[in-house]
Write a structure and sequence with these properties.
Layout (H helix, E strand, L loop, with lengths): L8 E5 L4 H12 L3 E6 L9 E4 L7 H12 L4 E4 L13 H28 L2 E8 L10 H21 L4 E8 L18 H14 L3 E4 L1 H20 L1
Parallel strand pairs: 1-2, 1-4, 2-3, 4-5, 5-6, 6-7
Helix pairs in contact: 1-5, 2-3, 3-4
């Protein structure tokens, strides 16, 4: 995080609702200049907002243009994500989940990280999930895409930290957004609380942030059931 956040610029991908919207508002309130990207207009105030889909072929070009208009990007937070139940007779949604949750993050970093490396500073944050350690029969693409995202982010973090660029993998449990459609949501937190945790990460710049830890422990225990069935089948 730069020393004077009042002149820092943040780019929020997926900022029109949920955690992204709460984070945009928190950043603006803290004095950041904020650029945003989402598939729809954002109700939050931002310096620049781009309506775009991270799956589109021209998304990298659109994002590069936005970065040029912003002038500098001190922090980029990738909040875009989807998750749908498995439809065994048709896997189109499985591919879409990977495209948004993982490939979209890679496409974003491909544009943003070289600019940060050239400047010798910057912070790239990706919102993953505690589901990244869970074999999920109901939504396998969600867990698998988040597993890939977590591994990729932490690998980047180790590679880029010596060059002055920080990468953080944020792993949340249930957050009270439209994606949290499970019947049971233990230790659920609000989008605003999640955004506050991301703001803390922008200050402390960890490689990994897991929150809440009680949910992480529960996911670890629940995750053993599917793993044992795989191993013993």
């Amino acid at each position: 995080m730069v020393d004077n956040p009042a002149v820092a610029t943040a780019l929020v991908i997926g900022g029109s609702d949920g955690i992204g919207l709460a984070l945009t508002r928190a950043l603006v309130a803290a004095g950041w200049r904020v650029g945003g990207v989402s598939r729809s207009d954002s109700p939050a105030s931002a310096v620049e907002h781009l309506v775009a889909d991270v799956r589109a072929a021209d998304y990298p070009e659109q994002l590069a243009t936005l970065c040029y208009r912003l002038g500098t990007v001190d922090a980029c937070i990738y909040c875009a994500g989807i998750g749908e139940p498995l439809q065994p007779d048709g896997l189109a949604l499985e591919r879409a989940t990977f495209d948004v949750n993982l490939i979209g993050a890679v496409a974003t970093a491909e544009v943003v990280l070289p600019r940060m490396l050239a400047a010798g500073s910057g912070h790239f944050v990706g919102l993953s999930s505690l589901a990244d350690r869970f074999i999920n029969r109901d939504a396998p693409a969600y867990s698998a895409s988040k597993a890939g995202l977590s591994s990729w982010l932490e690998g980047l973090a180790l590679a880029y930290r010596p060059r002055g660029v920080y990468v953080t993998n944020v792993r949340f449990g249930f957050v009270d957004t439209k994606m949290a459609n499970a019947e049971v949501k233990p230790f659920v937190i609000t989008a605003e609380r999640a955004a506050a945790r991301v703001m803390r990460c922008l200050r402390t710049r960890p490689i990994r942030c897991t929150y809440p830890r009680r949910m992480a422990a529960l996911m670890w225990l629940v995750g053993w059931g599917p793993r044992l069935r795989v191993w013993w089948s």
